[in-house]
Amino acid sequence: MPARQSGSFYRTSRGWACRWYESGRRRHQSGFESRSAARDYFNTVVRPRLDGLPTAPEPLTLRAFVEERFLPRYEATRAPATVQSLRWRLERPLRGFGDTPLGEIRAGEVAVWEAALPPRFRHDILRALRMVGKAASEWGYVERNPFLTGANPSPPVVERAILTPAEVDALAAEMSAPYGSAIVVAAWCFLRPSELLSLERRDLGDGVLNVRGAKTARSRRSVPVPLPAAQALDELPARLDTRLLFPAPEGGVYALGNFRRRQFDWAVHAAGLPSSTTPYTLRHSGLSWALASGIPAIDVARFGGTSLAMLEGTYAHLLESSVDTARARMDAFAAAQDEKEGVADGS
Fold first, then answer.
1. For 62-138, which CATH class?
2. Most buried among 40, 93, 119, 260, using CB within 10 Å?
3. pLDDT 10s digits, 244-255
4. Sequence ranges of the chain with CATH classification 1.10.150
């Protein structure tokens, strides 16, 4: 029976390393902060494997887990814009704990760290971080989610500006073709900027837009096209060089940052609109118009690719008017039924 290996440990330019023989080949692992850390790796990961026993998961830092395990899995089921948002939300956690092994992250340290986060972004950052911790726990890298430190209340709803249809038309008039039409379509069809700029001619249906959603890679939804948006789409020139409805001047999908800088921001100024107006203001305005017009909230949520909870949190004041509209319609229905019954009795 061959002698049981104990491994050897040595210094490298990256710290400490260990080496051993496995399957007839010499193998090594480097990057440990101390000799003890290298020995612990050998004893908990390598030796059980050599002895044919169940092995502990490879010790990973938070950064390595996010980049090598979590994000590749997340990217497979999410749209690029959603992945980009998640990366942005994880920037601060990776600066704070990126080089710390997952098993050494303590909830108490995370609680102190999160208390210093900007209030405006704290909820979203913690939500993203806890998503990572949940995956690490479910996949066996840690025994429990180290980022569960207590409640994570949503921030107060920030009142956003709502443009009127006339203001949207004024903004569109300041933009060159075809981007003026894009402004009208974005507002009346409740589109996120990434959804708007990736629209293709194949997405045009009979009175609807077949929108490829920004949240997941395969999501689809049908959005009604009101008359102002239909007229704006009819004005688009026929093009054979691209499938996109609103391509960048040099071709391809218009990057949102470039669109804002080259097309949108100066048009906002020229139209005399508040400087806080962004491409997302168009979607917000369109959702507000839909609710104010009496369209049921559940339909607005479906057309907008969002949730009722989001509508209730962001557009509560408009939902009140929607309730009034619903009550009036039910009263009218009841009156019509009474009238039918009266006619039937009289006959």
1. mainly alpha
2. 93
3. 999 999 889 999
4. 62-138
